[in-house]
Amino acid sequence: MINKRNVVTSIILSIITCGIYAIYWFITMTDDVSRANDNPDFSGVKAFLFTIITCGIYSIYWYYKMGKELYEAGQKHNVDISDNSVVYLILGIFGLGIVAYCLIQTDLNKLA
DSSP per residue over the chain, as a string? Predict the structure, then answer.
């Protein structure tokens, strides 16, 4: 159900494609968390569109929400995932979103 992705490869592809792969990564991570947590309202395309419409403000909320959703998914599937929502939020606020992506993907790989 959830695809395991290599974090280093995802970073390199994001750099090589000038961020286009990062958009794809954003959408697929959101969809993976949505599937893992059985929350169809949390959609990757919706999150991306809200981020564009709000000029990036929604992404701040997205970082926090991803942490909470990952934690809940870990609880449902008996996988040890910490509630890193505040860490993701702080990284997003200070412009270190790629680091938050890496941490989120690492937790997703635990669920895969």
Answer: -PPP--HHHHHHHHHHTTTHHHHHHHHHHHHHHHHHTT-TTS-HHHHHHHHHHTTTHHHHHHHHHHHHHHHHHHHHTT------HHHHHHHHHTT-HHHHHHHHHHHHHHH-
pTM of the model: 0.91
Amino acid at 49: L
| Residue stretches of the chain with pLDDT short of 70 | none
Residue with tokens 């939020």: 89
Cα angle, residue 102 at apex, residues 44 and 73 outer, rounded to 5°? 55
